[in-house]
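Work Package 4 report. The design task specified in the project plan requires that, given a folded chain encoded as structure tokens, an amino acid be chosen for each position. We show below one input record used in the internal validation round.
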């Protein structure tokens, strides 16, 4: 089985049309190729804005501060959307996923990249150690915040994954729902169509 890295796998999951569309919504990640990103934290938004300026795409990428469970866009606005490592942080998972579906055009594709719980040795043990002991220390150093990334192991553990998350998407009326693990099972890419 082919092991894909996160960004490569996201690109593979998106259709060629989605990569070319003008209205692709990025929720939670700054990715310069598309024209929208949505952050909840002003600090993270500022980092993303600077990143877009350095890449010379600040004229086509618009970033807004807001609540992913109450998106300020009309129904059927986006041709596609992606979320990178943000869905597990929704206060109300069903409401956030429903909002994403609401702003997608009929036939639009949602691509969600989220952490998983690896199942196989040695990835399972390595990821557990890394997420509990390394990521919180790095997060504290980078963000200067004592609590930064300390929540990660708990949020990954609590998040529904695999078939359980696919079932949630289906119950909310996402169609053609699929998933595939990447990077040894550390993350999963979920796709669904409106």
């Amino acid at each position: 089985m082919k092991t894909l890295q996160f960004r490569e796998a996201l690109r593979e999951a998106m259709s060629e049309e989605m990569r070319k569309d003008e209205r692709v919504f990025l929720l939670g990640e700054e990715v310069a190729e598309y024209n929208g990103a949505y952050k909840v934290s002003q600090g993270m938004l500022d980092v993303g804005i600077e990143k877009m300026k350095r890449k010379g795409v600040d004229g086509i990428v618009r970033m807004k501060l807001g609540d992913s469970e109450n998106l300020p866009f009309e129904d059927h606005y986006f041709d596609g959307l992606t979320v990178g490592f943000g869905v597990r942080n929704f206060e109300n998972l069903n409401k956030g996923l429903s909002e994403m579906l609401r702003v997608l055009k009929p036939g639009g594709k949602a691509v969600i990249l989220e952490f998983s719980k690896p199942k196989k040795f040695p990835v399972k043990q390595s990821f557990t150690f890394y997420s509990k002991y390394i990521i919180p220390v790095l997060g504290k150093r980078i963000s200067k915040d004592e609590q930064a990334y300390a929540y990660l192991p708990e949020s990954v553990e609590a998040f529904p994954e695999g078939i359980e998350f696919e079932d949630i998407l289906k119950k909310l009326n996402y169609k053609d729902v699929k998933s595939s693990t990447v990077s040894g099972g550390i993350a999963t890419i979920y796709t669904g169509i409106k």
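The chain is about 40% helix and 25% strand. Validation will be extended to a larger panel in the next phase.
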